[in-house]
Amino acid sequence: MAGASAQERSRVTEVSSPPPVAVVGAGSIGVAWAIVFARAGHPVRVHDVDGARLDAVHAELDERLEQLRLHGLLDDPAPVAARVVVVAELADAVDGAVHVQECVVESEPVKRELFAELDRLCADDAVLASSSSMMPVSRFAADLPGRARCLVVHPGNPPYLLPVAELVPAPFTADEVVERTHALLAGAGMRPVRVHQEVEGFVYNRLQGALLREAYRLVRDGVASAADVDTVVSHGLGRRWAVIGPFATADLNTRGGIERHAQVMGPAYLRMGESAGERDQGVDGTWPVELVGEVATSVHERLPLEQWSEHVLRRDEAIMRLTAAGPELGA
């Protein structure tokens, strides 16, 4: 842009700069979201009705950013911290924001009241996203005039370390809103995952809840102590799941891939489910062939079956790097 004037260069910089984001709710998730967006270059305004929470934001922010720096995950905390400002008035916080990330208490009446206010205050093209862990947006935004720009964006906790973000639109959410939100999050270093149905708990907490329910049953029935259940997960399942998910794990645990795993292990897994009262997963004592085929197709797109041995070695190398990183919390 050699011949451009200073004013023209300024306009280009302004247009290409990441747009403002508002975070409403200054608890731990709100501060964590502020880090995600500010680290990606967005100016971030944080609001909370509790003045004490607002007063605590910068100290918590500085502490977390310094931890990221100490672990080699952030070069310089200062520019990131400088992009985050606390704002006492909601209207000022959301003024000009292209995305509003709600992080208030998991209460339907509270969210309903807040989203009605956000819908009134925000620009018509601003996305209104809830960090709800369990509640679909239909439960608190269905009656809003601007309901088409509302959805759930549920993060792992904390999102600056666990980059998965579930995008959960309602039937009334505009596709364009989902696409814009996906692009915004991907640009901020997140791994957006679209959830296609408004089921309670979405994907993250349904998986987490399934494990937790079984963990409670094992303790209740005297099979194992709570400490030993935690050990099995932290030193076994969790360590492996840190590098690959459950379907990829099954694929790499059995020579012949996930189809062979379903044949060999599927009936036992279904019996375990039936012993806990689950009745709707199996057909004639095994998972449906069509369902296994759908999952296998997805897995083999990422992990081609003809390269199975190489993928096993890559998995093991990743676990070695994780093991070498240091002791686990509470080990």
From TrEMBL:
Keyword annotations of the record: Oxidoreductase
EC number in record: 1.1.1.35
PROSITE patterns assigned to the protein according to its UniProt record, in alphabetical order: 3HCDH
Pathway(s) annotated for this protein in UniProt: Lipid metabolism; butanoate metabolism
Residue intervals of the 3-hydroxyacyl-CoA dehydrogenase NAD binding domain: 21-197
GO molecular function: (3S)-3-hydroxyacyl-CoA dehydrogenase (NAD+) activity; L-gulonate 3-dehydrogenase activity; NAD+ binding
Domain 3-hydroxyacyl-CoA dehydrogenase C-terminal: 201-260
Gene Ontology biological process: fatty acid metabolic process
InterPro entries the record matches: 3-OHacyl-CoA_DH_CS, 3-OHacyl-CoA_DH_NAD-bd, 3HC_DH_C, 6-PGluconate_DH-like_C_sf, 6PGD_dom2, NAD(P)-bd_dom_sf
Enzyme kind, highest EC tier: oxidoreductase
UniProt similarity note: Belongs to the 3-hydroxyacyl-CoA dehydrogenase family.
Protein name per Swiss-Prot or TrEMBL: 3-hydroxyacyl-CoA dehydrogenase
Species the sequence originates in: Nocardioides flavescens
